[in-house]
Amino acid sequence: MGYGSLFSEELITLDASYSSQEDLFRSAAKHLVDLGYIEETYLNALMTREKDFPTGLETQYCNIAIPHTDAPHIKHPFIYLVRLNENLQFKNMGDTESEVAVKIVMFLGIKNPKKQISLLSDLMEKFQEEKISRIILNGHDAKELETNLKEIF
Amino acid sequence: MKNVIVACGSGVATSQTVASKVKRILDENNVRANVEAVDIKSLDSYIRSADVYVSITKSNKEYEIPTLNGIAFLTGMGLEEEKQKLIDALK
Lengths: 153, 91
What we know:
The complex is a heterodimer of chains A (153) and B (91). With 153 residues, chain A is of the alpha/beta class. Chain A has five helices and five strands; from the N terminus they run E-H-H-E-E-E-E-H-H-H. Chain A has one domain (7-146): Mannitol-specific EII, Chain A (3-Layer(aba) Sandwich), CATH 3.40.930. In chain A, strand 2 (56-58) and strand 3 form a beta hairpin. The model of chain B has no long low-confidence stretch (mean pLDDT 90). The chains are: A alpha/beta (153), B alpha/beta (91). Chain A: It comes from Salinicoccus sediminis.
């Protein structure tokens, strides 16, 4: 099942700098509201959920985070990819007493958990492949990355 | 039939993803078991009937049944070890 269509140039931000996780979340929410993907309630819901259930993950080639929140805050499904200029600390999903320095953040807009069940597993499987991790880590611009991601997924 | 439960914060994404991965591993190894993703708030009511608990978030609570590291099933980091524990626990 492909969901390459979820990737688009407007949902890829490369090499951006944020002063904190909150700064990143605020910018992301503003961008997603402007594009019509989320409700105004998203930001608070996202921040609360990340605090209660953090999403930092170590994978083989880079550390990632997959912030997400409940479906009622989502208008249309999306994956918003942000590649950070400077790593940001996220609490570790598996051990909330430790932190991971995250380079790639993928905001997951899950509207229908039952239908999108394979989304996260596919994403995580791709991050276990070196070639795909490199494409995401080294892609030069959003348009090129969109094309590559559409092919991969 | 033995029962495996997977719990995460809200059941939106992670526990379902891990549950489907666990199910696939069991199928590949010809181990028959029910695998269910549950909300962490209802964990205590499910754990009584479970044989293995796959945990996403580290908890200070101790359970009497084998408890596996769910993150391994998500990211592939340390997967082989957890896979073996899973299969051994359900034999």
